């Protein structure tokens, strides 16, 4: 399937062949819940690799079994993954596989079915979240309402360093998130055609939360 070409500043397409192959399997309607969950976890490590590619490093003196040398280590406080509940949970474990010491915040938001507005029902983040890089994660960027609300909430808590990662984005969601939060760069594996009247992405992969948890 051909994705819409990316023309927006601040949006990075993750075109790694393994990501594209796994995403295609996830899109198939016959992919089972167990397969979907496993694929999402696998893809999330690859998304994590891309979104952390330019993290700052600092030199550190270490001793190998043979001599003293200078290595590189991540600079600054541990980063925070912030899944948007509930589908974002499917990306957490794979990301923690790569960054085991990361903190995890949670934002619970659901889409009001009539208006598609984001309604918050849960928020929890580390006390010192404002001093950390927060990577907000959600498999689907559809209307953009929940992503915008999650980032609004983190900014209210004083967070200034933010990134957003998703698997599939709609052009509408990308435009909205970039317009509301131009300081937040976005990584996505695909930009699909458009949203339908119910706010689902076409061709998309259906409801990521339902497919992940087997609730439909
Ligand atoms: N959320 C989903 O899980 N899927 C969509 O297509 C849109 C929003």
Topology:
Layout (H helix, E strand, L loop, with lengths): L10 E3 L3 H11 L5 H19 L5 E7 L4 E7 L5 E6 L3 H10 L4 E2 L1 E6 L6 E7 L8 E5 L2 E2 L3 H12 L4 E9 L1 H10 L5 E6 L2 E2 L5 E2 L5 H6 L3
Parallel strand pairs: 1-11, 4-5, 4-6, 4-8, 8-10, 9-10, 10-11
Antiparallel strand pairs: 2-3, 6-7, 12-13
Helix pairs in contact: 1-2, 2-3
Bound molecules: uracil (URA).
Task: Give the key terms.
216 residues, alpha/beta, Rossmann fold, 9-stranded mixed sheet, two-stranded antiparallel sheet, 31% helix, globular, binds uracil
Number of strands: 13
Distance between the termini: 25 Å
Tally of alpha and pi helices = 6
CATH architectural group: 3-Layer(aba) Sandwich
Which blocks of ≥5 consecutive residues have pLDDT under 50?
Answer: none
Count of the separate structural domains: 1
Shape field: globular
Question: What percent of the residues sit in helical stretches (DSSP H or I)?
Answer: 25-40%
CATH class: Alpha Beta
String of helices and strands: EHHEEEHEEEEEHEHEEEH
- Please identify the structural class as seen in this structure: alpha/beta
CATH fold description: Rossmann fold
Q: Indicate the proportion of strand residues.
A: 25-35%
Mean pLDDT equals 95
- The value of Rg in angstroms is 18 Å
Please give the largest β-sheet. 9 strands, mixed
